[in-house]
Amino acid sequence: MGEQIPTYSIAERDRRWALARDLMDAEGVQALVAYGEHESTGPAQFAPDVYFTNERPGSIVIFAKDADPISLVWSPMHVEDHIEARRRGEACWTEPKNMRVAKHAAGVVQVLREFGLEKAAVGVLGLEPYPPFHFNPIMPYGLWSEVLRELPDATFKPVQLAFSMRTIRLSEEELAVVRHAAGIGEAMANAMAEVARPGVTEAEVYAAGMTESFRLGSVAPGMLLQSGKGYACWGPPAWQYRPQAPRIIEDGDIIQAEVFTSFGMRETQHQVAIQVGAASAETERAAAIARASYEAGLATLRPGNSFGQLVDAMLAPLTAAGGWNVHPMVHTLNPYGPVCGFGGGLTNLPEAEDYGQLFTVPTVGGQLPLLPGMTFAFEPNCVLDGHLVNLGGTVVVGDHGAIELNDVTTRLIRV
């Protein structure tokens, strides 16, 4: 990790602001309201506000006509941080006059009225789903209901899809940030493998990865982690949400994690699979199938193909072997959106009939064309006879094919 730390230029700011105005023109709106989720929310944060401000998350950003954007923040602490950044000579995109402690309905209404937009068409980011974590719109009901009451003659138009299509192809500056994050993800996986031995706890393996992330200057908002000799489940360790002791690692276990690395609000993901001692025959076969799915994805991730074709290619080795996937095989990053379907094998488990209602998540966004500059989380996973293996990392669509940003996590790590 000895390379120079990437940052954003004023040219990147201008590119993004021009994108907002192009979006407004194309959608026939005179303003754009971008709702930003509060800070420290974990993976897949909904943060179009930061995209336009390069500032602390948790604001509402409003582009009104051709004026510079106004940032409505929730706390005086945002302003205090901004003042300190200016004193230090850091690159601040928002002029002080355009930052207001007013992240509420009255603040939104005030800005739109100042620009005479009470009866205008206004584009909104936050009124549509943002999968895979937000299958429901993230805009608070109370806030938005009040805006609608105060501005009954305005027309509010959801524009998330149009925004995503304009931002999903990253600039060279953004790709440099993603590469930096991916390198930290690799270092986290190596740190986890260093401590993964019989007798240590899941918590110690978890801590090793998180420590490396923080040491290298990125934010790892938690991770998913499971361990055992054979299991078909995926999520955070149970001791994260239920009071119980972390599991002790045994010889023959496979420790698997999904590591989220966030640097400068660009995210990479890494699928860690650490085999402690000898692997079972089922684990070896599942690992081979997951790797075949990964390679099929690499061969398909090229301009001219669609996301649906990518999903089909990655699922093919799994289907042929009679396996199933507990989580998506692939989804977009930066921003999130199209996601591979998952969970289809759940209904075949003997315990399935005990549950009131089950639902297989379908593939979303299969029609998305693959274009250079898009980033994807490759996370091929295979369950065979109750044994899960999960591999993968972050991959970029290049001009002529896939560009892998990770190597360590794309194969079973043996210790």
From TrEMBL:
InterPro entries: Creatin/AminoP/Spt16_N, Creatinase/aminopeptidase-like, Pept_M24, Peptidase_M24B. Residues 178-397 form the Peptidase M24 domain. PANTHER family: AMINOPEPTIDASE (PTHR46112), XAA-PRO AMINOPEPTIDASE P-RELATED (PTHR46112:SF2). CDD domains: APP_MetAP. Gene3D superfamilies: Creatinase/methionine aminopeptidase superfamily (3.90.230.10). This is M24 family metallopeptidase. It comes from Solihabitans fulvus. It holds the Pfam family Peptidase_M24. The lineage of its organism: Bacteria, Bacillati, Actinomycetota, Actinomycetes, Pseudonocardiales.
